[in-house]
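Margin note: ligand = benzoic acid.
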Amino acid sequence: MVRFPRRNSAARPGAGIAGQRWDPARYQRNAGFVARLGEPLLELLAPQPQERILDLGCGDGALTALLARRAEVIGVDASAEQVAAARARGLAAEVADGASLDFAGEFDAVFSNAALHWMRDPDAVIAGVWRALKPGGRFVAECGGAGNVETVRRALAEALARRGIDAEAANPWYFPSAEEYRVRLERHGFAVASIALIPRPTRLPGSLADWLDTFAESFLATVPPQTRPSLKHEVEETLRGRLADAAGAWTVDYVRLRFNALKPPERAP
Ligand code: BEZ
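Resulting structure:
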């Protein structure tokens, strides 16, 4: 296991997103597909054995563990519970706020799967990634992009509006277009080798209500606990005809934003 000093004293580890809890057991039950479907991103990263890689938003470490077979990897996540789950796999992991990363020129690559969309200050995140990378390093990531889970977001917003609640005020997600994120990366100095939106309809392992419990707690938390079952039921009934098949299996309209951005090497004086 790799040891590294505790940092990010300025961060608010575990401060997290209003209403959203990260329960590793629930996450593994309802969100195991997140790491599995992130595996192709490892091929874009193409990790090399001598490389040192930061996994930004490592969650419970399921994908980090695959990465750790191929390079030296350190995971960071805002959730203390998820970091504990990652450490239980034998991984090096630390609690850190993605918007105030405190690493300086020490990674060959920063990798991130299904995490950037929880970080609502993208410029602070990109600035921290830039600082963390060595010259010539790369930032390879995938997150929700424009249009991601739009059908569900809209049905949730409508159900909350019927209760007089503005869902946008509780929205914890940031789903940028490829163009928007490219401009942000370039403004920070990255050369964008590739960036694209990839529609990826995703079959859920359980019900849509389970998905809402796992990923949409910020919205659910806007109503009292006793109202949440009927809210989830209402959203399910609104979407059943569009997103569930005859056997009752749910497929949600995921859209990924995937990119590979390079921090240019330093030029000889
Ligand atoms: C996603 O991975 O695209 C996602 C995660 C949480 C909420 C919505 C989407």
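The longest strand covers residues 133-144.
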